[in-house]
């Protein structure tokens, strides 16, 4: 959720970069300088992408990530590579990295925290440089196939719940408007080409090219852990793995292509430089603690239904489960809660789909003025219920849920609707950020003893192993540096 921003309810526009389709063939010439047209296109979308992903991370780590990104970009052979590339560290708690035309490269701080050496960082950034150098987005555009920067949850909604229909497409775009879960999709062949280029750049720069496979392995392990901790039976998540497909199989491919070539990893340097970096949710955007979402600045909290998991975005919180999907966000409010609910429906329907509640009912939830409305919508897969539940927190601020479920099953979300509450100042003050703490293993330290210091209530050992790329049979050696996650005080 945003710190101060509000969701523009009347807009369902998405950023179109023409990024689907694949020209195929071998790796194209990737040494042509970035053109002015490409630079202008990237500059247009750069501020919008920063806004969607929490802005740039303000910390000493940002300059380090930028320097590694520019150094690896030089290996691409693009003219003026160092000055032509813009490398941004994003203040986002999702594992993601992407690029847009014109030399704009992005990685989230969460993905950086998952890495364990500088070679892995260079590999991820080199992969994204490869997309730019190979003009993958332009080649997709030239294939004249439609694509947008879209929320993955929107795709799930339109495919699994709404069907491939105009109603489904319009509603899912409106439903996820403003979500942080924005991704750039390339074809599988283009992803493998970017892997090849990333490995090539790693080798040229003197890094260990096997780093591409190890970082992909960590990502696959993190996806699997996230799924288990969320109670899901699969590891499909709207993060780097889904936009850069099938990390598990790409681990094997990348390792085979790297062969026996070795190089530097700069592990200690990397760990020293990321020490203290924010990890997980930024309290300014709200935090997820188990099944509860808490926003200390907006002074609100709610609990997701049993069996659902949440993903915190810059402008909204998504709540996902097998029996339905939901989103919590905010919008312009003038004191009329009934009109607020109707405006949300209007925004969800968009220009082509007129969507309105049959009626708006007023109630009180935990001392808050509340209003709700519902609509039944025909979709390609049958009828679905759309519910909007709004709450007044002040004369000029309201928050709302939007839920979607198969017809007659909206009661799944009733406990969540009834859980919305205003938190006390002491509860807000108790929310502190988590940070990466790099420690040196001492004699007698074990995985269990260091895991006990992880600032979580569950999965401490599993989280520690994945964070440090430790397999089930790996042990620690005195003198090694490892990462733990602690609460900053």
Automatic annotation (TrEMBL):
> Pfam families, from UniProt?
LysM, Peptidase_M48
Keyword Protein transport set for record: no
For this entry, the protein name equals M48 family metalloprotease
Q: Which residues, if any, are the signal sequence?
A: 1-21
Kindly give the PANTHER family that the UniProt entry links to this protein.
M48 FAMILY METALLOPEPTIDASE (PTHR22726:SF24), METALLOENDOPEPTIDASE OMA1 (PTHR22726)
The prosthetic group or cofactor this protein requires is: Zn(2+)
Q: Which GO terms describe its biological process?
A: proteolysis involved in protein catabolic process
Keyword Signal set for record = yes
Record keywords? Hydrolase, Metal-binding, Metalloprotease, Protease, Signal, Zinc
- List the molecular function annotations (GO) for this entry: metal ion binding; metalloendopeptidase activity
Domain (LysM) spans 437-484
């Amino acid at each position: 959720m945003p710190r101060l921003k509000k969701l523009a309810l009347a807009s369902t526009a998405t950023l179109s970069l023409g990024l689907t389709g694949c020209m195929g063939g071998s790796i194209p010439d990737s040494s042509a300088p970035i053109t002015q047209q490409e630079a202008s296109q990237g500059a247009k979308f750069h501020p919008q992408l920063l806004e969607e992903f929490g802005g740039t991370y303000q910390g000493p780590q940002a300059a380090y990530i930028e320097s590694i990104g520019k150094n690896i970009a030089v290996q691409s052979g693009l003219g003026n590579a160092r000055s032509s590339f813009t490398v941004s560290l994003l203040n986002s708690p999702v594992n993601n990295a992407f690029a847009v035309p014109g030399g704009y490269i992005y990685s989230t701080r969460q993905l950086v925290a998952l890495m364990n050496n500088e070679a892995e960082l260079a590999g991820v950034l080199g992969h994204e440089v490869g997309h730019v150098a190979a003009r993958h987005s332009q080649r997709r555009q030239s294939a004249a196939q439609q694509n947008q920067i879209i929320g993955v949850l929107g795709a799930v909604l339109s495919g699994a719940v709404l069907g491939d229909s105009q109603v489904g497409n319009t509603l899912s775009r409106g439903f996820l408007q403003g979500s942080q879960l924005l991704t750039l999709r390339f074809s599988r062949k283009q992803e493998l080409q970017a892997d090849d280029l990333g490995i090539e750049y790693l080798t040229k720069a003197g890094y260990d090219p096997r780093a591409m496979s190890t970082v992909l392995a960590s990502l696959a392990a993190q996806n699997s852990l996230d799924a288990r901790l969320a109670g899901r039976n699969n590891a499909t998540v709207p993060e780097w793995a889904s936009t850069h497909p099938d990390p598990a199989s790409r681990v094997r491919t990348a390792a085979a292509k790297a062969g026996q070539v070795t190089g530097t990893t700069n592990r200690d340097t990397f760990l020293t430089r990321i020490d203290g970096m924010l990890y997980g949710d930024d309290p300014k955007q709200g935090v997820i603690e188990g099944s509860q979402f808490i926003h200390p600045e907006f002074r609100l909290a709610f609990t997701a239904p049993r069996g659902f998991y949440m993903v915190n975005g810059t402008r909204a919180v998504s709540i996902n489960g097998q029996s339905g999907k939901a989103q919590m966000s905010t919008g312009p409010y003038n004191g009329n809660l009934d009109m607020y609910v109707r405006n949300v429906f209007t925004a969800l329907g968009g220009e082509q789909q007129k969507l309105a509640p049959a009626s708006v009912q007023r109630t009180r939830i935990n001392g808050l003025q509340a209003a709700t409305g519902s609509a039944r919508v025909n979709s390609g897969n049958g009828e679905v219920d759309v519910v909007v539940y709004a709450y007044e927190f002040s004369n000029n601020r309201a928050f709302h849920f939007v839920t979607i479920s198969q017809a007659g099953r909206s009661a799944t979300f009733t406990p969540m609707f009834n859980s919305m509450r205003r938190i006390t100042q002491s509860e807000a003050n108790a929310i502190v950020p988590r940070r990466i703490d790099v420690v040196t293993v001492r004699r007698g330290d074990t995985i269990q003893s260091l895991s006990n210091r992880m600032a979580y209530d569950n999965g401490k050992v599993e989280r520690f192993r994945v964070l440090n790329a430790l397999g089930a049979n790996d042990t620690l050696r005195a003198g090694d540096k490892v990462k733990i996650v602690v609460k900053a005080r």
